[in-house]
Design goal:
- By secondary structure, the chain is an alpha/beta fold.
- The chain is 42% helix and 14% strand.
- It has helices spanning 14-26, 38-47, 53-59, 70-76, 82-88, 100-105, 136-141, 169-174, 195-201, 209-216, 218-235, 256-269, 272-278, and strands spanning 2-6, 32-36, 109-116, 122-126, 151-153, 156-160, 179-183, 238-241.
- Strands 1, 2, 3, 4, 5, 6, 7 and 8 form an eight-stranded mixed β-sheet that branches.
- Helix 1 (14-26) packs parallel to helix 2, helix 1 (14-26) crosses helix 12 and helix 9 (195-201) runs antiparallel to helix 10.
- The longest helix is centred in the C-terminal third of the chain and has 18 residues, at 218-235.
Length: 279
């Protein structure tokens, strides 16, 4: 079995969109996909066979005030309007609907990683549980802590999966994958700083103390998982596809030229997958 892990990273997820667009062009198929945050959106469009769909979201829709901005924060308490992104735009009749039938008919397994705001533990949603025009699991996985309110799905409240399982490569191993492609949106030698997460966690502490604890150590978890996959890459079990540079792009950066460049880097970087899978 061949697995793919896409870690997302806000608008930097356009790098992963480039990787998966190349995979669609080249006929590369995965048996299992784990998506974190924006990586889950990339995975959904890939499974639906909608080449180029996520590029439009990152480099066109993301510049709209309805998508993200201070006005959303003032009106709703959330900087990112997840209902607009994964509802208004993505539902049937929307501007660029997700092809639900194609996604569900794709034989690949699909896990979406989120974080339970109350327990501070990772939660794994599955493709079989997704319902038409109800993409709450994607919204949950993409709910950035502090700048967004925890997103409700059923009885639960959720935040971004990157808080607790930022590089879920072991999920692919557990699913039976012998070869795993991991898509990062930072250079693979770039470890995460822990200071900012520690500061941000204080803003969650009062309402969601367990989520705050998870956020405080997110950098340590990411760095530990990064070291693991670097070792697995040396063994030939994992291929890391990552940009050589992100040019100063932050998680929610809006810069058409830089985003276009990062997409191209993803598309070109994905060409290494052929050699990895043929070994």
């Amino acid at each position: 079995m061949i697995g793919l892990v896409d870690v997302g990273g806000g608008t930097r997820g356009i790098f992963g969109a480039g990787v998966l667009d190349y995979c669609m062009d080249a006929g590369i198929r995965f048996d299992f996909i784990a998506g974190v945050s924006a990586g889950s959106a990339n995975g959904a469009s890939y499974l639906a066979g909608q080449r180029g769909r996520n590029y439009v979201f990152y480099n066109e829709y993301a510049f709209r005030k309805e998508y993200m901005g201070v006005s959303n924060l003032i009106k709703t308490g959330s900087f990112l309007n997840l209902d607009y992104i994964y509802g208004t735009l993505s539902n049937e009749g929307g501007e660029y609907p997700l092809d639900y039938d194609a996604m569900m008919n794709n034989p690949a397994d699909f896990e979406i990683v989120a974080t339970d705001a109350r327990t501070g533990k990772p939660v794994y949603f599955h493709k079989k549980d997704i319902r038409r025009n109800a993409y709450g699991f994607l919204k949950a996985s993409c709910c950035v802590p502090v700048i967004n309110r925890a997103y409700p799905v059923g009885e639960g409240l959720y935040y971004d999966g990157g808080m607790t399982d930022p590089i879920p490569w072991r999920r692919a191993v557990a699913a039976g994958c012998e070869r795993i492609v991991v898509v990062l949106t930072r250079p693979k030698d770039m470890f995460r700083s822990t200071e900012k997460d520690a500061r941000m966690s204080r803003l969650l502490k009062r309402r969601f103390p367990n989520a705050a604890k998870a956020l405080a150590v997110r950098g340590e978890v990411y760095n530990g998982q990064l070291r693991e996959i670097l070792e697995e890459e040396k063994k030939g079990n994992i291929l890391i596809v990552a940009p050589d540079s992100i040019g100063g792009l932050k998680t929610l950066s809006q810069d058409h030229e830089q985003l276009e460049g990062l997409y191209r880097k993803g598309y070109e970087g994905a060409k290494a997958i052929h050699g990895f899978l043929s070994c």
